[in-house]
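Box 4.2: Ligand-aware structure prediction
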Amino acid sequence: MTRIQLTVDGDSVSDDVEPRQLLVQYLRENLGKTGTVVGCDTSNCGACTVHLDGQSVKACNVLAVQADGCDVTTIEGLARNGALHPVQEAFRECHGLQCGFCTPGMIMQSLDLLKDNPDPSEEEIRLGLEGNLCRCTGYHNIVRSVQQAAGTLSGSAS
Ligand code: FES
Ligand code: FES
């Protein structure tokens, strides 16, 4: 077992983990952060996307020991004082989800995309989300959600 210490959604945590344990398993099984989901376990679907030191990563493609000393944000760390994050709110308003399984990963990836490109075109949004699959194929409304979130975030920044 290896001792790791990290910050998850603003909380400091420390645990003994097996070196082979995936970050997504650690989040779900050790910390109960089941908002981060596993769709494929083979780094194809993006459902497990979280932020590691501010960059989106597929948490099934990262070992828990690699997150030692890092700052991890999951979908569960976005809301503030009971209010959804603007990207979460946009997905809700624009019906950017059907079954919702891909949604945590879509939102975390969208945030990363908007951080680098606050005013993306439709093509840039589709490109930025190409590593995230929606089995319900709700891509049209997902793109609309990201466009709406971009507008909200740029409005709140100005
Ligand atoms: S579960 Fe990680 S990419 Fe699918
Ligand atoms: S909303 Fe069902 S997988 Fe995307």
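In the box above, the bound molecule is FE2/S2 (inorganic) cluster. Residues 139-157 form the longest helix (19 residues).
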